[in-house]
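Late entry, evening session. Most of the bench is empty. Finally got around to the prediction I had been postponing all week. Sequence below, unchanged from the version circulated by S.P.
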Amino acid sequence: MRDLRVSFPRPCDEEWEAMTPSGCDRICARCDRRIHDLSHYALDEAEALLRRDPDACVRARVGSDGVVALKPGRRGNARRMVIAFAATAGLLAAA
């Protein structure tokens, strides 16, 4: 299986801590949109979210190797979500 490659072309400058909590996510007062914290999503859940809503606002912790921190998923799932630095689309490819 290949890794899921994503990019975040329009980073937001709003502070996470200043946003209104909504479950595991937050609501941005500036744009009134739900911000999804990808660390609370397993790979298959994050992939489904981004396929359903390619313009979804997300918060992502990205390691120095470009891997997005996600909730652990099923055992044996060797796929990862990685940042595609040169890409411009939100969700690029999945195996």
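Two things to note before I forget:
The chain has one helix and seven strands.
The CA atoms of residues 64 and 83 lie 10 Å apart.
Will write this up properly tomorrow.
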